[in-house]
Amino acid sequence: MYLCPQMQEYPSILLSNAVDCFASLPGVGRKTALRYVLHLLRLNETDVDHFADTLKQLKHEVHYCHICHNISDQEVCSICQSHHRDHHTICVVETIRDVMAIENTGQYSGVYHVLGGIISPMDGISPKDIEIDSLVDRLATQEEAVEVILALPTTMEGDTTNFYIYRRLQALMEAGKSIRVTQLARGIAVGNDLEYTDDLTLARSMANRVEFKA
Prior knowledge:
It is a single chain. This protein has about 210 residues and is of the alpha/beta class. The protein folds into two domains: about 15-60, RecR Domain 1 (Helicase, Ruva Protein, domain 3), CATH 1.10.8.420; about 80-210, Dna Topoisomerase Vi A Subunit, Chain: A, domain 2 (3-Layer(aba) Sandwich), CATH 3.40.1360. The protein has eight helices and seven strands. The longest helix has 19 residues, at about 155-175. The model is unreliable at about 1-5 (pLDDT under 50).
């Protein structure tokens, strides 16, 4: 009985490697990755080179703002540079996506501080692994009164991070710093991330924020 030799998944190793690269992206399965690769093959070389060069530039030339840790084309992001923003109001968020979500509401005129994560012992993330020390240092140098808005996920990890930040800020307040700590109103469902909250709910939660209670 003749057995057909086992066929490779793809007719080309280069094609397979490209599919592997796209499939490594979050939310992209192998079928979708294959569609992306075949689409690129149909483009002319100029368009493909532009696509590749854009990704290289993104990786090698993007900056993280040294004040708030948001993504920027410069050392200091456009929000931190703006004279039209309220620099006495600092919204503390988990990720850059949360900055985008809040900005999309058009209802917030302050500045941000991106932690880059939240405290999660189960995942091996401690306070030293995220930008809490830089937040405390930033507030320690502020001479005027400041409001700190805690806009972290409504999860156990988010609440733990809120509490830890509040305890760190208490030391500054006891040393004479005028800091008001608030959090988003609970219009956001428990367990939700900001990026998945609709603009209206997020805007109302920001506008109706309340004093943080440890």
